[in-house]
Amino acid sequence: MTRFAGVAQAVWWRTIHNFATNPAFLLPSIIFPLFFFTAFAGGLSSIENAPGFDFASGYTAFQFVFVLLQASAFGGVFTGFGIAADFESGFARRLLLAAPNRLAILAGYAAAALTRATVVGTLLFAVALATGMQVDGGAVDLFGLVVLALGVSLAATFFAAGVAFRMRTIQAGPAMQMPVFLLLFLAPVYVPLDLLSGWVQGVAQVNPFTALVQAGRDLISGGDVPVLLTAGVVAGLLAFFAVWAVRGLRRAEAAG
Amino acid sequence: MSSPLGAQVGQMARRSILQTLRQPALVVPPVFFPLALLAVNVGGLDAATRLPGFPTDSYLDFAIAIAFVQGALFAMINAGSGLARDVETGFLKRLALTPMQRSALLVGNLAGVLVVALASALIYLAVGFAAGLDVQAGAGGVVVIVALSMSIALGFAALGALVGLQAGSSEAVQGFFPLFFVLLFLSSMSLPRDLIEQDWFRTVATYNPISYLLEGIRSLVIAGWDPEALALAFGFSALFVAVGVLGATRALRTRLVRT
Question: Which of B46, B48, B185 sits opposite A39 (nearest CB)?
Answer without folding.
Answer: B185
